[in-house]
Structure formats: C-alpha cells, structure tokens
Amino acid sequence: MVDTEGSYPDCPIEIIGAETAKRKILLGKSFLDDDDWLKGLTVRVKNSSGKPLTHIGVKITLDRPRGQEDQGAATWDLWYGVSPFYYKPDEEIPSPNVPLVPHGRVELLALSDSEYSSLKSFLTIQNFPTSIERIHLMVYTIGFADGTAWNGEMYERDPKAKRGWKSREKPKGGANNRRFFNAQ
Predict the structure, then answer these.
(1) Which end of the chain is flanked by fewer CB atoms within 10 Å, N or C?
(2) Within 13 Å and on the Cβ side, how many CA atoms surround 108?
(3) Phi, psi (5° rounding) for residue 58?
(4) Where are the domains of the chain?
C-alpha cells in the first residue's frame, strides 16, 4: 500500500498519485505485486502553491512488517532540484539547475534504477525483509523561485539566523493572548 499518511495538511503542493514500472497505484488502497514493486516508483506532485518551484523533496517512509515494528521504519528521499536548505547561511543560493515548475503543473519524481539498487542495499543493511508492504509519501521541502522555502511552514532567507532561514509564520495566538499569559 502507498499512502500520504503523515503529510502536512497545509502543504502548498499536493501528492496526487504514484505508479511503479508495472502499474498505477491508487493511494491508500492495497494491491498485490512481487517483491520488486518499488522499482520504477514515480510520484506525481501538483504545484498548487501559486508560485513557481525550484525544488521538491518527497520523503518515502517504509514500514517494518509485523514482528519488526520495534526496529523502526526507514526513510528515503526523492528530490527535484536542490533543496534551498542545503546551503549554508552565508552562502548564496545559485540559480536552479532544473526548469521551474509553474503553478498548476504536475511534476514527476522518479526513483531511478540506480537509486532503487541503492535503496535495496540500504534496506538490506537495515535488516528489512525483501518484501515491503507499505510506504508513506510526504512532501517535506519546497523551494520557490522567489527565494522562499517551505519545510512544514514558510521560511525566508536570513543570513543572521542560525541555519540561514527565519519563519514567515506569525506566532499562534494574538498579542492579547500573549499579554494575558505574561501578566499572570
């Protein structure tokens, strides 16, 4: 099964589908296949942000089967472009190395054959069985052409900030709420 369980509800882009080398997958629905069903995994993501994108990061979380839950899940990333969070605070972010993804476009992020081989090796080292039954897909990083970024919330570049980014989100609650709690 492939689902988007655990995704941010307010993510500015949306995972709209997935497929493998053999079939289209209905998100959230079980299906039968062989142990290599992840080969050729392609995730379809729609830009509904209103802005062109320079980067999309999708995290694949692979669940352990029954009897191995105590060993924890594993994660693997699919990326389009370079994450803006990769750069140091004092480092300028270069022009994107991929075409911009305009608002409304569906972009495909695919697990290449070499990445699939690396994933299989990684899972073997992590003592995963050869048969993976369930994965979760989640958009976790986005880079925008205007220099902003998203990682659960919107950020803007700030070289003075510890990691080079500051949140564009306002603190939750109004000033009156903060004043009320500070007065007590």
Answers:
(1) C
(2) 9
(3) -115, 125
(4) 2-183
Distance CA 14, CA 40 (A): 20
d(CA 182, CA 170): 18
Give pLDDT tens digits along the chain (184 positions): 999 998 999 999 999 999 998 889 999 998 888 888 999 999 999 999 999 999 999 999 999 888 887 888 899 999 999 999 999 888 889 999 999 999 999 999 999 999 999 999 999 999 898 888 899 999 999 999 999 999 999 999 998 888 899 998 876 555 544 443 333 3
State if pTM tops 0.85.
yes
- 76: which strand partners? 60
Tracing tokens 């320079």 back to the chain, one arrives at 54
| Distance separating alpha carbons of residues 51 and 151, to the nearest angstrom | 16
How many angstroms separate the Cα of 23 from the Cα of each of 40, 69, 77? 10, 28, 21
**Whole-number Å distance between alpha carbons of 7 and 112:** 23
**Which amino acid is located at 12 in the chain?**
P
Q: Which two tokens stand for residue 95?
A: 């022009």
Among 147, 149, 153, CA closest to 169: 153
d(CA 24, CA 64): 23
